[in-house]
Amino acid sequence: MHLRILAEHLKKPFDNATKEDIKKLLNEMYSMNVKRGETVKKISESSKADYTIILKTFYKWLKGTEKPEETAWIKPISVKKKRLRPDEIIQWEDAVLLSKSAMNPRDMAFPQVLWECGGRIGEILTLKICDVEFVNSGDALVLHLRESKTELRAIVIVKSAPALINWLENHPTRNNKDSQLWVKVTKPDKIMNYTTARKVLIDLKRRSGLDKPVNPHHFRKSGASHFSHLLTESETKKRYGWTQDSSMLQLYCFPDENRINEKIMQMEGITEKTPEEKQKENENLKPKRCAWCNKLNPVGQEYCVLCKRPLNSEQNLLQSQIKETIDTGILEFTEQHPEFINQYIEFMREKIK
Q1: In which band, very low, low, confident or very high, does the pLDDT at 273 lie, cut at 50, 70 and 90?
Q2: Do the Cβ atoms of 288 and 276 come closer than 8 Å?
Q3: Which residues are CB-neighbours of 307 under 8 A, at least 6 positions away?
Q4: Which of 90, 129, 245, 276 lies at 20 to 30 Å from 55 by C-alpha?
Q5: 3-state DSSP of the chain
Q6: Where are the domains of the chain?
């Protein structure tokens, strides 16, 4: 794609371009504006570096020499990798917040899977239904990645499993195991590409009010930062498809300031929340099993996806009390006014004739 954009701006065949043409091309590329969504920004340093590398590499191949005259003068641009600030990291509760604003099961599952799986967007979007393996009747799922930048991996997901199962149960071509897992809802024969995935996340962000970056790669960074506190360095690199000598972990992950601050306050006998409050908060960020039909429901779901009853125990109790009050009221009313029973029976006889 970068090469195509360069060709459009060059406006002549690459093999006919001179050194001066390439200089003009890069000056134009370095000063151009880029539109992303509703915002227009100057081209980033990392994009400039990408264009430089691609141009130099392409001309080496085109001219068959290590130092073609047209591009030998170009100096590589050094880009300092940006580290995430703690307030930029997408937490699990942020992924749940995005899910709650979804308009369909696919969009509800996507941010949760994206966060917990942590795969590269290309790895996730190329999954097929047959690549999803059920573990312990769906308590967990294993995603068998079929495309990878480094090595093929099998990634287990737990918290996002109910949301993905719900999407599988509503998938328009669920009976065809070779179907793509992520498809367009209105056009199930079309795969969900990067542009569609990006738009889904932007729409969820707009509706939910989340004030954090939501590009797909940001989910990968955020998930890696979370799991780096739970897994060893070697295990984290394996899960995220990094080689053991990779330095990516240092760029993605850093100590969680909130955890450190909370630990220090606990040491000093200061607690912001009671254990009961923390437990209730944690329960709201876990899949819930319906007390009526035993269905395990996605995080953020207020009503069971199967029987449609409320998942909140307080709502369940309230619903039961309301039903009991109505039933008792009807019984007392019919005892005091038996003539209405006869009228009702006659009415029903007429209906079923």
Answers
A1: low
A2: no
A3: 290, 292, 293, 295
A4: 245
A5: CHHHHHHHHHCCCHHHCCHHHHHHHHHHHHHCEEEECCEEEECCHHHHHHHHHHHHHHHHHHHCCCCCCCCCCCCCCCCCCCCCCHHHCCCHHHHHHHHHCCCCHHHHHHHHHHHHHCCCHHHHHCCEHHHEEEEHHHCEEEEECCCCCCCCCEEEECCCHHHHHHHHHHCCCCCCCCCECCECCCCCCCECCHHHHHHHHHHHHHHHCCCCCCCHHHHHHHHHHHHCCCCCHHHHHHHCCCCCCCCHHHHHCCCCHHHHHHHHHHHCCCCCCCHHHHHHHHHCCCCEECCCCCCEECCCCCECCCCCCECCHHHHHHHHHHHHHHHHHHHHHHHHCCHHHHHHHHHHHHHCC
A6: 2-63, 86-257, 313-351
User: Which amino acid would we find at residue 36?
Assistant: R
pLDDT at residue number 314: 62
Phi first, then psi: give them for residue 33, nearest 5 degrees.
Answer: -100, 150
| CATH number listed for the domain at residues 86-257 | 1.10.443.10
Is the model's pLDDT at 132 over the cut of 90? yes
Kindly state the average pLDDT of the residues 26-55. Answer: 80
d(CA 196, CA 106): 12
Residue 279 has pLDDT above 60, yes or no: no
Are the beta carbons of 105 and 167 closer than 8 angstroms? yes
Give 235-247 pLDDT, tens digit per residue.
Answer: 888 898 888 877 7
Cβ proximity of 270 and 292 under 8 Å: no
